[in-house]
Write a structure and sequence with these properties.
The protein is an alpha/beta fold. It contains three helices and five strands; from the N terminus they run βββαβαβα. It has a domain at 28-101. It has a three-stranded parallel β-sheet, with helices on one face. A two-stranded antiparallel sheet has the order 1-2.
Length: 106
C-alpha cells in the first residue's frame, strides 16, 4: 500500500486537491502540474531531470513561458504533457512546431 498525502488549496471558486505518494515500482510516468502567474522558464537540465525520474510536466501560465534554446524537440516531446499559456510562449521554432503538431500546446 502506498503512503500518500493530500493537500487541499481552496481559493474560493477554485479548489485544488493535490495527492502525493511514493511508488518506486511505478511504470507509468507521473505528470507534474505547474501553474504560474508571471513568467516560467524550463531549461534542458530541468527537462532532463524530469525525464530521469520518469515524470512529465503539464504547464499552465498566465504571463510568459519560455523553453531555453538548448531544449531539443525530442526532449520537449518526451517530457511535456501539455502547455497552455495565456500570454507569450517562447521556444526555438522547431521545438514550438513539434509541440504544436503533437497537440501539446493547447
Amino acid at each position: 500500500m502506498l503512503d500518500s498525502q493530500k493537500i487541499v488549496i481552496d481559493l474560493g471558486p477554485v479548489r485544488l486537491d493535490l495527492f502525493f505518494g511514493e511508488d518506486a515500482s511505478a511504470v507509468e510516468p507521473v505528470t507534474r502540474s505547474s501553474f504560474a502567474l508571471g513568467v516560467m522558464n524550463y531549461s534542458r537540465a530541468d527537462l532532463e531531470k524530469y525525464r530521469s525520474r520518469n515524470e512529465r510536466v503539464r504547464v499552465r501560465v498566465v504571463g510568459g513561458f519560455r523553453l531555453d534554446d538548448d531544449v531539443s524537440p525530442a526532449l520537449a516531446l518526451g517530457v511535456v504533457d501539455s502547455i497552455r499559456v495565456f500570454g507569450a510562449l517562447r521556444a526555438r521554432d522547431e521545438v514550438r512546431d513539434a509541440l504544436m503538431q503533437s497537440g501539446k500546446i493547447l
